[in-house]
Every structure is written in structure tokens, then in C-alpha cells.
Amino acid sequence: MEMSGTGKQGDYAFGLMYSYAHRFWNVNGDSVSKTEIQNGDDVHLMATVWDPETMTVLPETGLSVEIYRDDSLVSQEAIYPMLSQPMGFHYGANFGLDGDGEYTVRLSVGALPTRRSGAFQGRFSEPTTVEIPFEYSQQAKEEIMVKQMEDESGTPGAVDPMKMEMMPSSTAPAEDDLPGRVIGSGMSNDAKFVVTVLDTPPAGIDGDGQYVAVSARSRYNRMILPAMGLEGTLSRGGETVYEGEFVRTLDPDLNYHYGAVVTGVEPGDKLLLQTTVQPQTARHEGYETAFGGLMGGMEDVTITAE
Amino acid sequence: MDPLDDNLPRRQVLKAAVAAGGVSALSACLDMASSEPVPTGDPNAKPSRQHAWREYIRHDEHGNSQLPKHQILLYIIFDEDGQPSADTRLILEQALTGLDRAYEWSHKGLLHSIAYSPSYFERFDQSLPENVDLPRPTALSPFESPTFDTQDAVIHLASDRADVVLEAEQALRGEQDQVNGVSVEARLTDVATIDSRRTGFVGAGLPAQHQDAAGIPDSNPVPEASPLFMGFEAGFKGNQATEDYVTIQNGPFAGATTKVIANLRQRLDDWYDEQSFEERVTEMFSPGHADKGLVKGVGSNLGSDSGIDQFIGDIESDAKAHNRVGHAQKAARANRDADGNVKLLRRHFESTDDIGSDQKVASLHFPSLQRRITDFEDVRRAMNGTDLTKVTPAIRQRVNNGILEYIFVRRRGNFLVPPRRHREVPTPQPES
Ligand code: HEM
Ligand SMILES: [Cu+2]
């Protein structure tokens, strides 16, 4: 993968990368369909969007791409959120181009539909567009392919995440860095759910009581797993204390997470987490059977509060 | 019968001529066009509403309106600053009356109108009457940043005859001494500048003929029977407001309507190549339409109503069960008044204009008529389905969310279509 450039506009920073065309799996609910490389696909374009102030990656917004060559439109598409081992969360699609040379790529982001808390309240609420020059050569692309294959041979578990100097990676906070009191964690199909409890909900979230935040990340690389439907049941000695949705939320300290306000959490309480909808992100090869994917869904997780 | 229909290459040349414009395009077009005479008109026999089309155009066997095949939009700016002078009024009146005289008010002749923008009315100190709702155009989705059309006015020319819309445009530009045997007495371009010219076409056959435009995959997927690039019929009688309904009833502008015109780029690669017919029906109409097999082919079998009303209540459960929601299903939620009447009268047509470039790119000109601009805004916002993205993460800002993945709004303008009696540079409070 190669970095093409970055841009900044309004509340958003953008990074544009490309690689050779990839096949991937599209996810709609629990149905997963393979998108093969099409005739004429030259590159896999990837974009990341983040908050330049906190360097938090912004998943779940709409992203569209326009590609121009000398003012003439080459392509335009709404591109899909995706998970890959080296890149983590990104937006991407395969595109056909008009040969080697200079292109202009316009990346447009929509207002973030995800609930926001803390200092993120009111931010990321306008659409914006940046223009990033994009230099393409088939030869350079083929070199990426060779390098990639060398890197991948003989790596167990997941491929190491790429480090891109100019942009943040989409990792969730380490357990020790999460605010609040971590009460436990559980694993579901290579997704790790780390649960932390805050004494009060972050600013901007209604309700009285404690705030239970589920930070979902990939098992090996700690990459955020956004766009799931998550329901939870908190019980104490057989009595249900809370039952309901854990709402997709973006917070500067908790990062992307799923949260619910409950009256309180005590040691010994049981929290049952059910993924009603697996992460609605396309999967690159290597992740097609993780976090649901071709497995159809994700197992329930039960955590006993410490 | 329109003899143009039977000849595909000719159809193509005519449409290309409308897009290109100019005298040579017109003569190319006249060579090709039907030799059937075009009926002339009588200025005193025109309907009192400029937006009166329904009684004057073709209908299909179900009573659905068939929009004029060839259309041109001319966005104009008056040359004078401030309030328009008597001179401007006179020239405009002569120019429009010239068209009235040259052509019958019908699809065989010419339907034409002039509509005025909020910026035009800002030339005056007075404000518009209370009952005229004409805000400036604005972004209507959380993911669009259109350029706003704030020219003074837009002239809309529509006919089944390509040569007629072209010739009418030439008359307004003063590039013909006479049109359809009637002499041209005044030219619009003496008092106004044409800032932007947009063209288009609609009706079975034309989109299929123009699917070589960018935005449509190379597989030639647009059915010959489809009036639109996306492969379905639109504008069923039961899903459209009546002209009476969209007409302002009282005050100095009684007989007027408001008009929003958007231009949307269409990107149909994934629409056709990634999706099955059932998935297209799901995203265009509703999951219920696909489940019950209600749509055959381009949807003519729906008759005079898409049947969407029975699926509006299901939208949240559809989102959860099918991971997709339909375009018509979302829009219809806000498109009924308390008595169940439809609020918008959509008259969209296709184009290969790529405003600002010479490239041929599939797009849609979307004029919609409604009593208040706010009605359009409400419906358009309902079509965003932002609420449904909260119901399940499977419905995303643009993906699985009706047809939002495939359409990109580039322009929007808001206009008032005055009644005929006030069509020449009206003040905000004309004397009835
Ligand atoms: C390429 C763009 C579009 C295409 C191909 C398209 C096509 C269609 C089709 C096939 C239907 C169902 C049949 C019918 O009732 O006419 C429909 C319904 C509708 N569409 Fe669109 N549409 C497009 C864009 C828009 C936009 C931008 C709006 C803006 C508000 C809109 C508003 C509506 C409404 C209000 C309905 C009727 C729903 C009801 O029954 O109340 N459409 N459209
Ligand atoms: Cu990707």
C-alpha cells in the first residue's frame, strides 16, 4: 500500500492510499457476498478520515470519491467502510483508471450519523470535501504487490498493522488507557469486547446512573470494530437490572464504543452482550470469517463484573 | 403518432442536437425531423397557469402523464441591476408571446414557462406575500454540498419534438427571424444573459439510446422500455400531486406554484452490475415490492399507483429484516398531507449534461412542483432516511438506503412559477 497524500478541511483530516485491486466481502446484515476484482479494476483506493485535534479515526460516516483526470470525470462512487489486517478500519473500493499519470481525487465526507459525546458533541456535523492529487503508475503498483507478498509470507495470526506516519491508526485504547473501571472482557469470533464503567455518563448522553461502555476491537491488532448492532442484559442474582441497546457512540476518551446508561454495576453482576448485527463493514481477505463475516453472526459474550 | 419513435438513429441525432444547440444543430435536426407540421398557437387560448401540462400532454393506458420527450432549461440573469424596467418587461412579453403564437400549447407544440428565484425578488424592497413560501435553496441532506442556482429566472421549454425546443430557444436568442412560420419580434437576450443551458430527454427508448454516457456500465443495462436510466417508470398518477393541489390558491399569486430544480449525477455501475433485479426493486420501491413480486420489468404493471402506501408503516421492520429500505417508501412518508393527498408533482427528466464540462455524464434534472418549497424540503429530508441509520447499522448514510448510493446532487435552485398573467418580471406584490 502506498500513501498518496493527505488533506484537511473543517473538522476533518483525510488520508488517501492505494494498492493493487483487492477482492473483498461485502456485508449487509448477516449476508456476505464476495466482490471479485472486475475487469478494468486498476487500484484499490483507500481513505481514512480522522479528527486532526485528537487523532481519532472517524468510522461510520458516508464517504464518496470522485476521480478526475484533466478536469474530466473518471469515476465517482460512494465507497464502503472496510476492515483489513494491515489497514484496520478504512473506506475503500476498486477503481479503473485511464493509465499512468496525475489524477485529482476529491474525497467527500458526510456529517457523522454516530452519537457523539464529550468534546465531540456538535462536531463532525457538516459535510466537507478535500482534493488530493493522486499519482498513478502501473509499475509502482506492481512493486507494492511484490513487497506485500514478501511481508506476508510466514506471519502467524494477523498481519502486522501498517504504520503510516502521517495518519493515526484505527486502534481502540489499550485496556489500561480506557477511562472508568474495566469490569471484564470477553471474546466473540476474534472480536474482543472490553467493558468499562464510568460513574456518570459522558457529557451529552442523557440519563442518570452509571455508563457502561463496550469497546469492541480485533483480538490481535486492537482495531476498532464499528457499526455493529449490540444489545445487552445486565443482571444481578437473577434479576434484570438493564436490558436494551448499547448505542454506537464516539467519545474523545472512550473512542468508538457501544454505550448504555444503567442504574449501577456491582461486582458479581452478569452482563450478557448479544451482537444483533455484525460489523457492517466489508472484509478484506483474512478477515472474511472474523467478527461474523462468512460465519453468519457472532456468539454471545457473558462477562461477570469484577 | 410520433414518427420519430420508429427510427433509432434519428432519435439519437435529435437528442444530440438538443444537447448541442445552436443553428447548425437545429438545421441538422430539421433535416431529420418529422415533416408533420407543428401546430401554431393562439396567445388567447393558453391556460392561465404556466404549469398546466396534464391536459395537454400524452397519457399512457393507465392515465399516467407522459412527459414531453425533449426539454431545455435556460437559466437567465437580467442585464439591468435593481428593479426591472418597463423596457425589460416589454421585450420579455413580446418574446414569450411570440412563442405562444408560434406553437400550440401541447406536447406536439411547445409547453413553456418562466419561473423566478428568491434572488430575483430581492431586487425589490417589498417582500413576497405570506402565502408564498420561497426560501433560498439550501443543502437538504447531511452529505451534499450542491452549488446553488441563484440566477434570476429559469425558462423551461418542453415538447415531444426536438426541433421545436431548439427552434424556440433560437427565437429567444434572436437567432431566427421566424419560427414555425411566425415572425420573431423580440429577443430575450437583448435584456437578459443566458447563464446556464441544460437539456434533457425522457421516455421509453431515449435513455437506452444514450447509455454510452459516463456513469452507466458498459453492459448496456438500460432497458429499451425504460423512460429513465435507472430502469423503472416513475410518476404514477396515484403518487403524484395534482396540478390543482400544487397551485397557490389565494392572494396576488393565485394560480402560481413553486418549483425546485435539482441536478443529480447518476453513477449506476453498482446499481446494475452488483445488484439483482430484486435488489433494485427493493431499493427503488420497498422490500415488500420485491418479496411480493409486485414489479415486472420497468414497472408498467403497477398501473396507475406504485402501491407504496401499504409499505410505509413497515419501514423500520423492513430495515431490520431486509437490511435495505426503498427510495419510494422513504419519500412517501413525508409526501402525504393529513387527508392522504400527495404533496409533490415530480417532473424529472434525464440528461447527459455534465454542468461545467463537455463530457457526457448521466444525470437527472429534477423539477418538482409543490405549493410550498418547504413541502419539497420535508420530502427530500425523509428520503435521506437518517432516522433509519439509527435503527440498524446495516442502513448506512448512503448504502442500503434507497438509491442514495447512486445519485449525487450537484445543483439546486428554488423558483416561483407565477400564473400567466404575472409571468413578465412580476413585483413581489403584483396587482391582481
Ligand atoms: C435518479 C434519481 C431518481 C429516480 C430514478 C427516481 C425514481 C423514482 C421511482 C421509480 C419512484 C417510484 C414510482 C413513483 O411513485 O414515481 C419514485 C418515487 C418518488 N421519488 Fe424518486 N427518483 C429519483 C430521485 C428522487 C429525488 C431526488 C426525490 C426528491 C424528493 C424523489 C422523490 C420521490 C417521491 C416523493 C416519490 C413518490 C413517493 C410517494 O409515493 O409518495 N426522487 N422515484
Ligand atoms: Cu479496502
UniProtKB/TrEMBL annotation, chain A:
Domain of life assignment: Archaea
Pfam families, A to Z: DUF7350
Domain (DUF7350): residue spans on this chain: 176-292
Protein known as: DUF7350 domain-containing protein
Organism from which the protein derives: Halorubrum tebenquichense DSM 14210
